[in-house]
Amino acid sequence: MITLFKNAEVYAPQALGRLELLVTGNRIAAMASDIKLQGDCVQQLDVSGCLLVPGFVDSLVHIIGGGGEGGFSTRTSELNAVDAMRAGVTTLVGVLGTDAITRTLTNLLAKTAALNEAGLTCYCYTGSYQIPARTLLADVLEDLVLIDKFIGVGEVAIADHRSSQPTVQELARLASQARVGGMLAGKSGVVSVHVGSATAGLALLHQVAETTDIPLAQFYPTHINRNQQLLQQGFAFAKAGGSIDFTTSTTAQDLAQGEVQCAQALQQAIAAGVPVSQITFSSDANASLPEFDSDNNFVSLGEGRIASLYEEVVAAIRLGVPIATALSVITENPARVLKLPQKGRLKVGADADLVVLDEASLQIRAVMAQGRWLFSDGSLPITCVHTGVPLSTTV
Ligand code: ZN
């Protein structure tokens, strides 16, 4: 399919102004002020009044569900591919989490394959919360080198009562395997780190960097907006060269207990002089979000939502963060950490992963992934290439 976007206000995510953008097959073929094309096979789409931005990159999703910390009935559900499409997410990374006993890496790989079949670009991490890491082959190194879809390890838990309480040496050894595996396979080999609420926070990661040759950038700590103290530790970590990730799924109770909403955390980071290029958002979708009453009795179980990823970007824009800056935390920044140069940016040669946003409301109007339309809200004249039927929902 050939699609020519006309009259778009393009954010790459840098603001490029009004451009025409041509998609052929699964790639962006041209971006220029005037592209001349004709023929029956060309779909010309007037997107006046819209922003054209890169498809969103979500670096942490419990694609086969998570939870279970309150007994088997608190296990959460799998990600629905349609929910990702509607949320503008075109690239995502699946993880296990706390439970690597009833949730398995084989199941994670199968779901990863299913999401790719649905038209998304999905990768996953080997390992889980625990060290030694649970792996499919002999170790993390083999998993990264030999299994295509594994691009890193994690989320490994630290500063949390559910972690395996790893030592500096254990964490360093895991990071070295991830680093070498990433180098050999041309992948990021990143160590995704779940950071809990214990006061130690990121100390263990600094100790690894101080006592070995492994740089802070090997680690990718998440949930940094869990509380104000961890947020400040995260700012120092990012200023020292690491990348930090904020979690967009939250509950009213989490906020009452000190979690900093992502939009505000981003605003604080900018004010504190943290390089925005070192900051990302992820949804933690399908993780369990338990609610407790004032006596700490379990009340209900919520689930992280993938739609929260872009909702928090919109919230940040409403707080005054420039559009390009806000978009970068769910596009080019995570793509760079994950070493996915085809993703997260609008440029010639990149994968044609695009989100069409309403300029006024910033609502998602349509989503294209690798040149295929995956979602339309019905407001644009987008028709199915196979049937000619207007797309008013996901295909
Ligand atoms: Zn986590």
What is the oligomeric state here?
single chain
**The CATH topology of the largest domain, please?**
TIM Barrel
Helical element count?
11
| CATH H-level homologous superfamily name of the largest domain | Metal-dependent hydrolases
CATH-level-2 architecture of the largest domain: Alpha-Beta Barrel
Return the string of H and E elements: EEEEEEHEHEHEHEHEHEHHEEEHHHEEE
Please summarize the sheet with the most strands. Answer: 8 strands, mixed
Q: What is the helical fraction, as a range of percent?
A: 25-40%
Write up what this structure looks like.
This protein folds into two domains: 2-54 and 345-376, Roll (Urease, subunit C, domain 1), CATH 2.30.40.10; 56-337, TIM Barrel. Helices cover 26% and strands 27% of the residues. It has helices at residues 81-86, 105-117, 140-146, 168-185, 203-211, 228-239, 252-256, 262-271, 308-318, 323-328, 332-337; strands at 2-11, 15-24, 27-32, 42-46, 50-54, 56-61, 89-94, 121-126, 150-158, 190-195, 219-222, 244-247, 279-282, 288-292, 298-303, 354-358, 364-369, 372-376. The strands form four sheets. Strands 1, 2, 3, 4, 5, 16, 17 and 18 form an eight-stranded mixed sheet that branches. α3 (140-146) runs parallel beside α4 and α4 (168-185) crosses α5 (203-211). It starts with a strand and ends in a 19-residue tail after the last strand. The structure holds zinc ion. Residues 155, 194, 223 line the site of zinc ion.
